[in-house]
Description:
This protein is of the alpha+beta class.
Amino acid sequence: MFLIKEFKFDAAHNLVSYKGKCEKLHGHTYRLVVVLDGVPDREGMIMDFLELKEIVNEKVLKKLDHSYINDIIKQPSAENIAVWVWEQLEKSVRRENCRLYEVQVWETATSGVVYRGESLEGRSK
């Protein structure tokens, strides 16, 4: 079973290792989706939505919302933001009955990335 919680934050960035219009300073209203994989506990929940909200607020949103993301992530592409969010949350949401399954970072309504903690190293091509 999957537990899903969505968040929004506003931030600015520029892609310094990129040639194109996104190398210039610009901003987004990002949509962040956090997905946990688990089984309901004795209270019938994978995790209380309020607890997940508090963790994401503390570990991610307080740092990224209304920030210049380049001060936090060297090359803040959606891909690199997703990896950074995963690293901030993975240990904090892990429980006996659940784990972080997926992080989605959406820059626009139609453009986003999904990260599941995997790396490209070790994957067969």
